[in-house]
Write a structure and sequence with these properties.
9 helices; 434 Repressor (Amino-terminal Domain); 125 residues; mainly alpha; 67% helix
């Protein structure tokens, strides 16, 4: 199942990647919606790019699909590049203003909130 998902996740849009992950997990839109506490219509809207899931749903989405949020949200190439850069770079490189803003905001978080962010970013098991 994971191999099928990895091949299917190469699609360009978040909606396409979400649909592929849901199908790879053997779930219907209704089943995914139930697992997340949302309607089938919400899942359909996400897959068809009419809406996006709220931030609070991302940990549950990762768990329900058994998928990496990096791959779902950013796509496999970006997720892989991120994993490689973490392994290879001992120091932090800030590539643009958005990354700098993210790093500044992360550093301003309390230790408890930092841990919550790190938990959110962990790959699904």
């Amino acid at each position: 199942m994971a191999g099928h998902f990895r091949r299917a996740i190469d699609m360009k849009s978040f909606g396409d990647r979400l649909r592929a992950a849901r199908i790879a997990a053997g779930m219907t839109q209704e089943q995914l919606g139930f697992a997340l506490g949302v309607t089938k219509s919400s899942v359909s809207a996400w897959e068809n790019e009419r809406e996006t899931p709220g931030f609070r749903l991302l940990p549950s989405l990762r768990t329900a699909l058994g998928a990496s949020l990096d791959e779902l949200v950013c796509g496999p190439a970006v997720a892989q590049a991120g994993r490689e850069s973490i392994k290879e770079a001992p120091e932090v490189y800030v590539g643009n203003a958005d990354e700098k803003n993210l790093l500044v905001r992360y550093r301003a978080l309390s230790p408890k909130r930092r841990q919550a962010v790190l938990e959110l970013l962990k790959p699904a098991k």
